[in-house]
């Protein structure tokens, strides 16, 4: 394990050094790629800009709303499909090909129906994110031992109490894994939507920097966004590990 960590660290150092060297030697045009040191400087400058911080805050709040809605809909949908096998068999082909569907093509329709603003962006993000939670919920419910349901019947719990007090807590690690995956889908959908029509948000800021040839600022914003996403994923991984340890 320690050796693998050192290999990963060494690979990252070599990659960063190669990027810095290639850019500093002029092997690529500065309008195409900039050194990592320049990206870091641009990210620090962006962190000191109130407008950029407001864009970050808007994007992160939108992603949080998307993940919250997707988590609720995904858990409810997963529980419903698991409870009614006939619905599940009918939905399985759709579930298997869900992420192959061009869901982002629905964005213009959502703009027509919901108007311009954050609402169609949230709707697009929910479409992308909720299925991972539903699939994780189904997988977790499939692995719950039958004795859990017997215990619920012995204690005369109703369907709602059985789901909320026994089944969902028992598969909480799986649901947490689905929610962690939904965060990635939410970021992809929200950032891509902000590229198109949004007037604010970090996706709009990146697109604006690209269109105005502010290459260093563009990469700095992308670096800051990447660091933020990695930090969130690490936090979700810790939560899932804690839930797994508690379930064990």
Can you characterise this structure?
- Helix 2 packs across helix 11 (215-247) and helix 3 packs across helix 4.
- The protein has 11 helices and no strands.
- The mean pLDDT is 85.
- The chain is globular.
- 82% of the residues lie in helices and 0% in strands.
- It is mainly α and 248 residues long.
- It folds into 2 domains: 1-33; 38-247, MetI-like (MetI-like fold).
Question: Which key features would you list for this structure?
Answer:
single chain; 248 residues; mainly alpha; MetI-like fold; 2 domains; 11 helices; globular
Order of helices and strands: HHHHHHHHHHH
> Care to count the β-strands?
0
Low-pLDDT residue intervals, each spanning 5 or more residues: none
Oligomeric assembly: single chain
Produce the secondary structure layout.
Layout lengths: L1 H23 L11 H12 L2 H34 L1 H12 L10 H8 L3 H25 L3 H9 L4 H12 L1 H25 L5 H10 L3 H33 L1
Helix pairs in contact: 2-11, 3-4, 3-6, 3-9, 3-10, 5-6, 6-9, 9-10, 9-11, 10-11
